[in-house]
Amino acid sequence: MRTDAELLAGDEDAFAELYRRHVLELYTWFRARAAWAAADLTAETFAQAWLSRRRFEDRRDGAVLPWLYGVARNVLRESARRDRVESRARERLGLPLALGVDGGYDAVDERLSPPPSLRDALAHLPEHERRALELRVVGELSYGEVARRLGLRPAAARLRVSRALRRLALANVKEEL
Prior knowledge:
Number of helices: 9
CATH architecture of the largest domain: Orthogonal Bundle
Oligomer: single chain
CATH superfamily of the largest domain: RNA polymerase sigma factor, region 2, helix turn helix motif
Helix content: over 70%
Structural class: mainly alpha
């Protein structure tokens, strides 16, 4: 029987054997620490192990499991860091922390959708101005790229976007009066 180290140094089939040997231990380890994401974290650990297999140094007579636990700890730490960053961003934006609970997805959709007055004003823009505005603002394209997509010169694209913004501003002023 080949050692773990030999399997790690081998091809995809050898790595698959290493996976079969240790997937249950790592999955169990993750279930105790992050049950909701144990399967994903286990998969990510093996993906990272495959990518970094050349850095493995055999210090345990061919045993790879201690090294895999080290990879798993790093994967868990990075996942926790990413979750903290995402949670802080959702808090700053006023979005729900748990999207699937209490209409969280609806709250996000509502928060990210333009208000009805803006949707109405956009609907009343001339099509050529609305399209230029969408490409520039929503698509975040340069005026040169907007012009290329619409078959215009950059100055004409800039003029269309400017007119659309002016119309939206006027619609907003009328609504406030």
